[in-house]
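Write out this protein's structure.
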Amino acid sequence: MATPSFSPSADADPILVEPRSGGSLRRLHFRDPRPPPILIAHLERVLMAVLRVSIIEDRLIARAQVRITGANHQITLHHRTACQDEDGYILEVDSSWGHLPEATHLYFQNNAHSWFKLWTQDLLPASPAQDSDGSTELLQQRIHAVLAREFQLADLRNIQNEILSSLRNGASYVTSHQEGGTRIRWNGLRFVRTDYGETERMEEFTDPAVFLDFLRRFFHHDVSRHCHPDPVPETDAWRLILRKLQADG
C-alpha cells in the first residue's frame, strides 16, 4: 500500500483533525527519545493491537487495525527522521463508521476523539519533522533494529520464552477491576497467580507449558477484543500478552 509523502512546514500545527463523511482523520506530529522498537511496544500495549511493519520510500511504516463497537480505526505510525537524542514521527488515526446507522454517527465521532486522546496521551506533540532533518545513517540503523526485533517476534516460541524469562527476572502481570484484581509472577520456585479483593485465591504452576496455557486463556478477551468477530492470530495473541508485562514486578 502506498503512503503519502509528508512535507509540512516546521511551524504547522502538530495536531490535525479532518472530519469526513462517516469518519475522521487525526494526525499527530511528535518526537520521542525511545528507540523505535520500544515505541512500537508501547503503542501495541496501548492499542492492544499488533503494528505491521513495512519499509516504504526508505521510511519505516507501522500499521494496525482496531475495531471498537463496530467502528474501524486504521492506525499508522510514520517514522520520519532519526537524530541522536530523539526521532520524529507522525501518528495517524483514520476512523470510519459510515457503514453503521446514521443515528449513531455523533456517538462514534465523540468516541473517536476520546480514543485518540487515550492512545496519544503519552506522546508529546512537536513541530513537524522535515525530511531534511536528522541523519540518514541513523535512520537506517533504526530501521534495521526494528526489523531485527520483528524477526524475533515472528516466532511464537521466542515470544513465550521471553515471557517466561521476563517473569523469572522480576516482571509481572497485574490486572485490576472494581472488585479486586490479579497478580501473576514468579516467586523464585514457581509461577503464581494471586487474586485479591472480593475473591481471594492462589494458584501455582510448576510446569511452564501448563502455565502458558493458563496465560493464553486468562488474557484471551484482552488480546482479541479489538479484532472481534475475527479470531486473533496466535502469534499476535502472544505478542500482545508479552506487551502486557510490567517490568520490575
